[in-house]
């Protein structure tokens, strides 16, 4: 399954549209007014599916991932040189990225790839392609992508 993650050009808060391979809207992400990033994920019919919420009182950036009111995990940036590294407490996954922070792989505990996230260049807004091997993992992969993008925006 492939998702196209595209930030909206004009919005007061972080807003994204997530499309499938056929160009249909699968998810809509809306930023909320809060301390730190708070991103609500809705399906195409407007039902809330999840939330990515930044913990503001932590040494390094940390985000909690929610499905409904249930916390399903968190992601935090690790102190590293040259290559971004993230500590993930969600499904036993881990993320590794390249030096330029444009491409990531989400791997499970055995080293099998769950998803590959690639940033598309030459766009006016942040645009990513998320290749997910199992469609059941799409929402969690999207939440991780949102958290990584929010961390990069905060840093810049």
From TrEMBL:
<dbReference type="InterPro" id="IPR025659">
    <property type="entry name" value="Tubby-like_C"/>
</dbReference>
<protein>
    <submittedName>
        <fullName>LURP-one-related family protein</fullName>
    </submittedName>
</protein>
<comment type="similarity">
    <text>Belongs to the LOR family.</text>
</comment>
<dbReference type="Pfam" id="PF04525">
    <property type="entry name" value="LOR"/>
</dbReference>
<dbReference type="InterPro" id="IPR038595">
    <property type="entry name" value="LOR_sf"/>
</dbReference>
<dbReference type="InterPro" id="IPR007612">
    <property type="entry name" value="LOR"/>
</dbReference>
């Amino acid at each position: 399954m492939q998702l196209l993650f595209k930030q909206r050009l004009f919005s007061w808060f972080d807003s994204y549209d997530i499309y499938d391979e056929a160009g249909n809207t699968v998810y809509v992400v809306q930023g909320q007014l809060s301390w730190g990033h708070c991103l609500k994920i809705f399906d195409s019919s407007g039902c809330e599916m999840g939330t990515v919420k930044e913990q503001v009182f932590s040494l390094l950036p940390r985000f909690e991932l929610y499905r409904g009111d249930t916390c399903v995990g968190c992601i935090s940036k690790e102190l590293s040189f040259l290559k971004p590294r993230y500590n993930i407490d969600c499904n036993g996954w881990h993320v590794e990225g390249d030096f330029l922070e444009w491409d990531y792989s989400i791997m499970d505990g055995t080293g099998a790839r769950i998803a590959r996230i690639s940033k598309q260049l030459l766009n006016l807004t942040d645009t990513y392609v998320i290749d997910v091997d199992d469609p059941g993992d799409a929402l969690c992969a999207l939440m991780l992508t949102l958290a990584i993008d929010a961390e990069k925006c905060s840093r810049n």
